[in-house]
């Protein structure tokens, strides 16, 4: 990251990669490590590995956005959709199922924060681009 603006535009992507990649590995290979999930069938193992693959694919897109400027907008959009999707899914669960443990409540807040931060970056980048085109 060469500038302060680069840091502001990408810090949430870096945080997301550092959180989502280990979670993906945990879901795929150690689902019982953090949760009371004990897959018994090959289909259940397959399901968790598919979730792992989806998380890793998203993290890969975010890494592309961190290192390649032409992928930054795609990385930002996918990060917003991913984080807000998780956050709103968790809010739905809280309303329907009740409150989870404190870690999940904090995780929900952080997912919503990262998603909103990504929207803010997208909006400010769009405004900056529009201003440079009119100058």
Topology at a glance:
Layout: H1 4-29, H2 31-34, H3 42-67, H4 72-97, H5 102-134
Provide structural commentary:
The protein has one domain (4-134). Helix 3 (42-67) packs across helix 4 (72-97). The longest helix is centred in the last third of the chain and has 33 residues, at 102-134. The chain is globular. It has 135 residues and is mainly alpha-helical. It has 5 helices and no strands.
Mean pLDDT: 93
Total of helices: 5
Order of helices and strands: HHHHH
Strand content: under 5%
- Could you tell me how far the N terminus lies from the C terminus, measured between alpha carbons in angstroms? 26 Å
Rg over alpha carbons: 17 Å
Helix content: over 70%
Query: Which ranges are low-confidence, i.e. pLDDT below 50, for 5 or more consecutive residues?
Result: none
Derived from helix and strand composition plus strand pairing, the structural class reads mainly alpha
Main sheet: strands, sense, barrel: none
Give the strand tally: 0
Shape: globular
Total domain modules: 1
Brief overview, please?
Pfam families: DUF4345. The chain crosses the membrane at residues 12-30, 50-67, 74-92, 104-123. The chain has 135 residues and is an all-alpha fold.
Structure characteristics:
single chain, 135 residues, mainly alpha, globular, membrane
